[in-house]
Amino acid sequence: MSLPDRIDPRPPRRIYRWDLDKTYLQTEFDSLRDLVRTAFQKAHQKVAVPGASALIRELSENGDSRLCIVSGSPKQMRAVLEEKLKLDGVRWDEFVLKDNVGNLLRGRFRALRGQVGYKLPAILESRVHAPVEAEEVLFGDDAEADAFIYSLFADLVAGRVDERVLSQVLEAGGVYPDDALRVREAWKKIPVGDPVRRIFIHLDKLTPPAHFTAYGPRVVPIFNYFQAALVLLADGHLTAPQVLKIAVEMVQTAGHNIITLSNSFQDLLRRGLPLQQAAVALSQALEGPNKLLAAMRPMPDILAAFSKRLAALGTPPPPPPVQAVDYVSLIHHALPRNHKGRTKPQ
Amino acid sequence: MVGTQPQPVTIAFDVMGTDHGPGEVVRGAAMLSLESPHIHTLLVGDRTLIDDALAETKHNGERISVQHAADFIGMDEKPGEALARKPNASVAVAARLVAEGEAQALVSAGNTGAGVLACARHFQLIPGVRRAALATVYPTRSVRGAKGDPFSLILDVGATVEATADDLVTFAVMGSAYARIISQNERPKVALLSNGIEPQKGPPRVVEAHARLSEMKDIHFIGNVEGIDIPKGTADVIVTDGFVGNVCLKMLEGVHDTVVELAQYAYKESLRWRAGLAMLSSGIQRIKDITDWNQYGGAPILGFDKIFIKAHGRSKSRAIANAGKVAAKVVSNNLGAAIREGLKK
């Protein structure tokens, strides 16, 4: 980075927003025992989802992006979470944690588990300070309300959701009036644009992908971060060598192999993502001057497996039609799990 | 060995042509992808139908792949003619993929004849095996092996109508190897089905097979058994030819159906009988659990160099998943090598 850039850094071209638990970290909080264990874990005991840190590092390699983390973990865990991110070589620009003690002291019990009233104002306020032209990619999981909140955020910024629908959603989502006010105030300050390119939902609970169909093709449920890397390659956020590096890390550290990677590739093709060229790009990357990648096994076998998986599908069916998102009817996706209005995923 | 991860195994599933439609097979494979991390499934059939069913089902996409096959063979079609007309039927494509090494075993709940014929065209017979044997499992009164398996294995039940003494000996070796692997039964009791327990009872081929099996030290041959011994579980492996085996199997199924119908009749007919059935309900439930073929999954076609597990046409997802587990277990324990070893002795 040159001296002028250090004094007055260039505005980010891309913003990557991440959730933490179950998106970046393999966190268990489904029972009280899990919650207690998670709370007392040290940084080195926390485990990242395979490929997540490699993906973040590769995305930041391009030097024109910001990493914004908004997590439902309590503020008291900041030190240990930051230490974990540093251990993984992840550098962040913004790190927002939930003030659960504050909520408790103020008797805001709905806010303890509610996500809409916490995450939506947080990411809207963050967007206020972003350059108009900066595009966004968001990462969440299927344990909470990420698909709903991220999609609503995208459509609010794009002007596709009106005040009436927003009011209905905030009311149905049990959002406290001061948080609702923060949402409206931040929203008014954001210039209308359409910056959100992708919303990745890590299928930590293996929710069936059709559960997310209502949010349209912008939301991509993923079984692993190799799948996210492939889509980001097709979208122009990553290069083929960067994707290969992520795959290599997953093979070397998380037990992935030719079969799991090629199945992951085909899984996305079957869901209609235009990745036919990805295998070609990866193949070219291996043939290129990067000898380190060319020497790594079993990458060439993976490409052969990709080609087979691609050929196995025959002629692709036509893509699904684009549809508007009906947030009022989908609000039950965003309510805490024991809420009466929430329907269980199939 | 404790702590070692099982080797990955890929099982091809013929998704089409079952009584309950492709959804049940897809759900079974999805179940398998969640329960058994080392088992990968290759679903062969209509891509659109498979994708639609998968999208609605909890599964692990890292462990499932799909091979599109536009055609399939229905239950009521004649296998030879249908395979000739539809070379790209799902069962034929699946058998070809197994032969080419894309998967290590095939599971099908479709047309049995088409499955056997597809395997015969794409797989090789193990050296020393003249004819493949279609096996079935039958619930018995006694249990066997480390896992308390209540099923005995009967072979052949239809593939080789007129078996020679050679064939019967081969069936005994193959059945014994299979029972050793699947029931975790170190020394499965093997018997010949005949019309009397004496060695000289039965047609000449059975008498000759008896004499030869008696000489084989690696087979725990207990002699002849009669039909009455099948449900008793006297033997773990019952060897017969396809004609007798099929008649026997159909009769046993008929007895089961008749007992169920009689119980239903009794339940409707009289309050006293209904009360009696209610008092027996826990026992009846136990019998139902023991005889639930869904827990077994499927039965093998023995004799080929590749594995084919034939699941029942009415299989629901649990039975399909179990058939996949049986197939993976057979592959992992290298049944082919065990049969080859047995035939050498």
Automatic annotation (TrEMBL), chain A:
Question: What organism does this protein naturally occur in?
Answer: Myxococcus xanthus
Q: Which GO terms describe its molecular function?
A: phosphatidate phosphatase activity
Give the protein name, as stated in the record: Phosphatidate phosphatase APP1 catalytic domain-containing protein
Classify the source by domain of life.
Bacteria
Q: Which InterPro entries match?
A: APP1_cat (IPR019236)
Instruction: Give every Phosphatidate phosphatase APP1 catalytic domain span.
Output: 19-161
UniProtKB/TrEMBL annotation, chain B:
Q: Where in the cell is it found?
A: Cytoplasm
Question: Where does it mainly reside?
Answer: cytoplasm
Per the UniProt record, which EC number(s) apply here?
A: 2.3.1.274
Q: Which GO terms describe its cellular component?
A: cytoplasm
Q: Which GO terms describe its biological process?
A: fatty acid biosynthetic process; phospholipid biosynthetic process
Q: What does this protein do?
A: Catalyzes the reversible formation of acyl-phosphate (acyl-PO(4)) from acyl-[acyl-carrier-protein] (acyl-ACP). This enzyme utilizes acyl-ACP as fatty acyl donor, but not acyl-CoA.
Could you tell me which HAMAP family the record lists for this protein?
PlsX
Full protein name: Phosphate acyltransferase
Q: What is the lineage of its organism?
A: Bacteria, Pseudomonadati, Myxococcota, Myxococcia, Myxococcales
